Amino acid sequence: MKGNTIGNCGFLCRWGANATIKLLKISGNEAKKMTEKMYDVTIVGGGPVGMFAAFYCGLHELNAQLIEALPTLGGQPAALYPEKQIWDVAGKAGVTGRQLAADLAAQMAIAPVDTVVGQMVTNVQKDPDGCFTITTDQATYRAKAVLVALGKGAFTPRPLALPGAAELDDQQLSYFVTQKADFAGQDVVVLGGGDSAIDMALMLEPVAKSVKLVHRRDQFRALPKMVSDLQASAVEILTPYLPKAISSQADGKVSLTLKKMKSEEELTLTPDRVLVNYGFTSNNAALKDWQLDLASEHHLIQVDSTMQTSVAGVYAIGDGVTYPGKVALIANGFGEAPVAVTALAKALYPDKRLAMHSSSMKIKA
Fold first, then answer.
1. 249 and 259 in contact (C-beta within 8 Å)?
2. How far is CA 119 from the centre of its chain?
3. Three-class SS of residue 217?
4. Among the four 18, 35, 52, 61, which has the fewest Cβ within 10 Å?
5. Does the annotation place 360 within a ligand binding site?
6. Which pLDDT score, from 0 to 100, does residue 20 have?
């Protein structure tokens, strides 16, 4: 069953051409085969970095497995901000979260591995034989090595802390842009002053009727290039203002009252939609329940130069790890994946010669 994907609804998802997925009803016996197999490595986390690691395992023909808690691969870029542009992927400047996930899925289809979606890993423990038992909320798997690619865990947007905000529906107040077309012809207010907030405002400017960006300071916490693009756009910048009150009007619009900082001046806006981007809080609490004593620093997993953790056979990559000089970017995570996969492959098969360059591999796209 190498190269198949099992979801939590009793279906097998088989990778096809151009990363299309064919859903086939699977028997209990077929699903059981995955739980009885001894994998070379189980990758925990199906975000961009985990997907690339899975592809790299496939290139080296490792018997690998990828487990993702969400019902689809792609992680937070695909699930939380599919329309947001990402600027730190080499050769893919401005790629959206959705397109990045699709491109990585197409890449995985070239050298597929067994993939499980919709299952949360609840425990990983090292057994007396040196291998690992990986337990999810639905099944148990075995592997000789584990590669953790969880990022910083579950992300939750920082909410708009105003009375009545929670009562507004997601057509009036939201924290993500899943489809730009949903904002077509509407008056939109974006709250926030970081790169993501500016990116949202610039992304919606061509489709919305109007876009206003509200920030509590005159200076933005964003890259200079983003600020320059904002200032050159048609987005109306309102600073330094802080949201004071919000409610729904009878006509379906939103009443948003702003208060100018260090002033009694107030301003009331009546947009169709309000977008909030005050950042996210992350939580990797699931790791604490694993029966692994992983060394950590500031809630990040400590790894060495080969991406191995303090537990032999357990490797970690992506935003959830730390080492001297670490930069928390997707681009950096993509570079960590081959380091970890190569190291664990050499540890598992010390006598096997590994091709180091993809150009020397017989790959058929």
1. no
2. 16
3. coil
4. 18
5. yes
6. 36
Residue 121 is labelled as binding a ligand: yes
Three-class SS state of 326: coil
Measured distance CA(55)–CA(32) in Å, rounded: 24
Is 68 annotated to bind a ligand? Reply is: yes
127 assigned ligand-binding residue: no
Could you tell me where the beta strands, DSSP code E, fall in 216-283?
Answer: 236-238, 241-248, 254-260, 266-269, 273-276, 280-283
pLDDT band, very low/low/confident/very high, at 1 (cuts 50, 70, 90): very low
- Quote the crossing angle between the two packed helices 48-59 and 330-348, to the nearest 10°: 40
Residue 76 annotated in ligand binding: yes
Q: Is 179 annotated as a binding residue?
A: no
The H or E element containing residue 329 is none
Interatomic CA distance for residues 59 and 52, integer angstroms:
11
Closest by Cα among 74, 43, 345, 329 to 321? 329
Whose CA is closest to 271, among 226, 236, 229?
Answer: 236
- Residue in 275, 364, 284, 269 with CA at minimum distance from that of residue 320: 284
Residues forming CATH 3.50.50.60 domain(s) in the chain = 4-155+281-360, 159-278
Per-residue pLDDT at 101: 93
CATH number of 159-278: 3.50.50.60
Q: Which of 31-35, 85-89, 102-106, 148-152 has the lowest mean pLDDT?
A: 31-35
4-155+281-360, CATH topology level: FAD/NAD(P)-binding domain (3.50.50)
**Under 8 Å between Cβ of 145 and 348:** yes
